[in-house]
Amino acid sequence: MFITPDDGRRIVEELHASIGRDINIMDRSGIIIASSNPHRIGQPHATAQRLIREHLPVLEVTAAEAGDGMQEGVNLPIQVDGVCEGVIGITGPCSAVREFGKIAKKMTEILLLTRRQETQAAQRNQARRLFLEAWLFDREPDWQAFALRGSLLNLDIHQPHCLAVLMPGNGADWSELTRTRLLQHMEGLLRRRTDIVHAVVNGRLLLLFEGEAAGLAQPLLQSVLDACRQMGQILLAGLSSVVTRCEALPGCYAEAKMAAATATADCPIRVYSSTSLEFILRSIDATVQRDVVRAVLGALPKQEAEEAVAYLRLYFDCDGNIERAAERACVHKNTFRYHMSKIARATGCSIQQPSGLVMLYLILKFYENLRNTPQHSQAISSRKLVPFNFTSTLYHEMHPICFTE
């Protein structure tokens, strides 16, 4: 630890404005690094050098002793953990500046101690981030050595863990500056939580929850998202399942990424442990979904494709009950069967066959997923077929549907 010229300049400017006295700050070798008289910066300060050399608790220069480069005033060592980091001197009659000197000394020592603590915290956080990255991506770690390394960073790899991946809520990529600001904000939020590690890995913000924090991960994660929202950053997050084996953490990263990909503004935290079929389908790449829809429905005219989607939606909403679906569509059940047969002829997928039934369900879900993506207006076929608009006359979720035969 040492006093930087910037540290010294800030202290000198503040004290000089408050007490109106000339102030000098010297480094460990007694060289002036900051002064209310800029011309003295860089010059040796004989009184400070003597104080440092003789390990004096204070060195006052009276008016009678002044001269030969020495000025009347009080000089005090700046100490952090018993180590002299420099000297602060205030010019003026000793009786007038003695108390000011004590205050200036204490103020400078507190500044240095705080800066040292911040530096140590930053170094510790960086070490923990690197540790997390190694934990996720090292192929064959020496787990015994890894556990020892973790213990030095106050991390127990044998505790339960889970992982959260955070991403921007507007779907855009974060700039490096934004990620840095968010990381700094989280450092402030989580300063006292040694059981939570925050890091940027592969451009993603991660939070590792350990031990007791793993059991409270969802409310803790929600508090982080709420705090970030207050600074104008809307975040979405995916949370992995909790694991008890250190070897399983890389799998948590994959789970959290998958969960984050399905988070929405209405549901900003997706938990992988609540995985459902809908969750899995949403996790499939949009390009794959679009290709499947194009392959099955792309040859149909737009109106027929929309009609097919509407009938499929009714069929699956009614759990495959033809009579109930026909009633909701305001058509005879035979008419509904006719439309399902028409879909089978057009797509090659029949509800009478398990494989066809599964394919039709996938088509419906992919079609709806694409409608809800930012690229929903992109054509999914050579005929520029777009995802079905559920406010059309063919289908409306809030009212019974009447199809024209």
From TrEMBL:
**Family per record:** Belongs to the CdaR family.
PANTHER family attached to this UniProt entry: CARBOHYDRATE DIACID REGULATOR
Q: Where is the PucR C-terminal helix-turn-helix domain?
A: 310-365
Q: Where is the signal peptide?
A: none
InterPro entries according to UniProt: CdaR-like_regulators (IPR051448), CdaR_GGDEF (IPR041522), Diacid_rec (IPR008599), PucR_C-HTH_dom (IPR025736), PucR_C-HTH_sf (IPR042070)
Q: Which organism is it from?
A: Candidatus Avoscillospira stercorigallinarum
- Give the domain of life: Bacteria
Please report the name of this protein according to its UniProt entry. Helix-turn-helix domain-containing protein
Report domain CdaR GGDEF-like positions.
145-261
Q: Where is the Putative sugar diacid recognition domain?
A: 8-135
